[in-house]
DNA sequence: GTATTGTGTGCATAAAGTTGCATAAAAGCA
DNA sequence: TGCTTTTATGCAACTTTATGCACACAATAC
């Protein structure tokens, strides 16, 4: 019978003493980070779970915790106040939470192009250098190296999906649910040939890939075929600039696609505008949907889209960080919040004509 | 004939003392959560209900909340205690949480084929009928009708993804992360032509679709093409029984697929066995991976797979329910927990031969 | 009443985990 | 180089946890 997994087993395998292993789990100072890393890694592999001691006696220190909020964006583009940016609501939710729970939050913007904590925009944050934070909130995607470095120092919560080798706590919208709401609506209206379109971004755009994968999943669930020709700018070989993608979408629409699911609102507005310029009307000729719930441009119709609950994401993010800082519920979690479908004016019933006929159907 | 169900019976079946069983039901501290999990699980299967007989004494402190735990499964398949089933760890985590927070949890098994709360296996749960619960935990997928009915009455947390029109709180493994870990490992070993296989289940198997969508996403991220011919039993039109799927996988392997990602461990074991019977060796000729982390059959090699943290899922689920019952953080959340990659003996480097040549490559 | 059955709990104990102190190795420093 | 300081780890003593034994108590049976 397999040996029971306990600290002794880990100690034996790594040729260290039981004491060392114990100290790793109890977060004692004076343990070589390398050793600690080995221990945690093996522990995970063996499935050892270090359970917090039952009787939570007199914990809860009273000094208010300090947290840092890092926003990975150019200061210029962030400061623009012309339209309500998503970030605004995120921060609102976050500070709402910190106020309610009597926490201190320091907000800083950092340069997206910098890759280590010693680079200027990080170095100039004194409180970070002095390790005075009990946790960090990351807003928008960060370079993987930064996430990993921070993760070793303090609890980290990211407010969008981070793609990283090490597990990261994160709070995000439920992309699957949003796409499912959209596709079910389209399906109810009789759409069967539904395409998916996105722009090409750098490698940070996990959300676009995630929404595409949700599209694949939900199409399958609805019993609809995914025609690779109707999926634009997702495959590794596709590298269309927006105009090319729009043109391609127009072509595919002439071949019978009756609805386009775009990975983001701004893409959808771009597509609608392009269609308009080429005499294709939304939603009369083709339906278009987005994802985000940003405010619509003046010229555009109200978009049918999934609205991301930014405010709540901020709130829940704060709460999760507080939990982590108190060492409760340690391993990485990914919290996805529900979103709502906003019924706009850009979807209509599937046009029976285009669903069955060829290139000449719309012109 | 069937013995009367009492604590002694449970104790005997689990080879522990009756004292231990008693302590489980009375929420004593100092009981191994794993043991408690086993006890509760078996109790549910046997239909034992510990209804506190002595209410007279002044022993109740601040009237603890009562929660129901419903397990949607056949009692027979659930009762077997031979090997450590996933459910056991789920319950263990759940009861650990309820012990720590002084909650009462009642566990019941219900019949998966019943679709409304008035059906027998629900009707016979008196405390449910009397609306005495402050919340319900659902284990395994339930019929949508049941989920919706319960959702109207009390806070509900599901311990696997539920596919439902109304938003449902749920705690699950991060399927995307698990598949990503597996695919990155395969990619590191030089695999490029990687297939995906699943069995066909009823419409409850959201996890299979979700894992497939994760496969699509991660393949794309790695810059690998998804060849529809190497994706088995996902499209609406595919309805292969396991043997057919295995045969198809064998054929595709001869055409150059070097690794198969299966949606679940038992599928992977089936595939490996089939390959073996047809002279294809794992991992020498082809790599195979799973998902779940169940214990391996005796005949099989240790599978490379993503291990689901059942224990933690139970814990976090309990916590989420408690939050909901106290009206905190209302809107539906989907919490996904990180999983770990278990390195087994079923993946190896991509065989350079088969990756480049045709049907004759393996024989 | 006394026997019987079922359940809760104090106490003992082995196994597992933690920690004070000593010490070896590494790093500063003149 | 040789001396001090720091850091990381082992040893062994100590603490905590999980569970069985045995008895106490209550409800029912006879």
UniProtKB/TrEMBL annotation, chains A, B:
Pfam families: LacI (PF00356), Peripla_BP_3 (PF13377)
SMART domains reported in the protein's UniProt record: HTH_LACI (SM00354)
Keyword DNA-binding on entry: yes
Protein name per Swiss-Prot or TrEMBL: HTH-type transcriptional repressor CytR
Top-level lineage group: Bacteria
Family matches, as InterPro entries: HTH_LacI (IPR000843), LacI/GalR-like_sensor (IPR046335), Lambda_DNA-bd_dom_sf (IPR010982), Peripla_BP_I (IPR028082)
GO MF assignments: DNA-binding transcription factor activity; transcription cis-regulatory region binding
Record keywords, A-Z: DNA-binding, Transcription, Transcription regulation
Keyword set includes Cell cycle: no
Record organism: Novipirellula herctigrandis
């Amino acid at each position: 019978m397999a040996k029971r997994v306990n600290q002794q087993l880990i100690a034996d395998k790594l040729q260290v003493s039981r004491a060392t292993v114990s100290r790793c789990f109890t977060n004692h100072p004076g343990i070589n980070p390398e050793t600690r890393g080995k221990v945690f890694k093996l522990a995970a592999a063996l499935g050892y779970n270090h359970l917090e001691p039952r009787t939570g006696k007199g914990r809860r220190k009273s000094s208010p915790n300090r947290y840092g909020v890092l926003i990975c964006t150019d200061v210029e583009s962030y400061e623009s106040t012309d339209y309500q940016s998503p970030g605004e609501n995120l921060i609102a939710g976050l500070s709402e939470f910190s106020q309610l729970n009597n926490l201190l939050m320091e907000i800083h913007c950092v340069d997206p192009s910098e890759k280590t904590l010693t680079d200027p925009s990080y170095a100039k944050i004194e409180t970070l250098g002095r390790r005075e934070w009990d946790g960090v909130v990351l807003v928008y995607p960060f370079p993987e190296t930064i996430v990993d470095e921070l993760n070793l120092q303090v609890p980290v919560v990211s407010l969008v999906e981070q793609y990283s080798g090490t597990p990261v706590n994160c709070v995000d919208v439920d992309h699957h649910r949003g796409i499912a709401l959209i596709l079910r609506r389209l399906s109810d209206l009789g759409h069967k040939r539904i395409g998916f379109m996105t722009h090409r971004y750098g490698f940070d755009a996990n959300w676009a890939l995630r929404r595409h994968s949700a599209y694949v999943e939900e199409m399958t669930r609805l019993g609809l075929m995914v025609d690779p020709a109707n999926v634009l700018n997702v495959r590794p070989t596709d590298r269309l600039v927006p105009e090319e993608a729009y043109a391609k979408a127009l072509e595919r629409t002439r071949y019978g696609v009756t609805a386009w699911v775009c990975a983001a609102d701004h893409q959808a507005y771009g597509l609608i505008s392009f269609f308009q310029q080429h005499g294709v009307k939304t939603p009369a000729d083709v339906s278009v949907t987005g994802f985000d719930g940003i405010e619509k441009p003046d010229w555009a119709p109200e978009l049918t889209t999934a609205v991301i609950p930014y405010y709540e994401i901020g709130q829940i993010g704060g709460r999760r960080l507080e939990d982590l800082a108190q060492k409760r519920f340690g391993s990485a979690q990914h919290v996805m919040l529900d979103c709502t479908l906003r019924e706009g004016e850009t979807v209509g019933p599937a046009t029976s004509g285009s669903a069955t006929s060829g290139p000449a159907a719309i012109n």
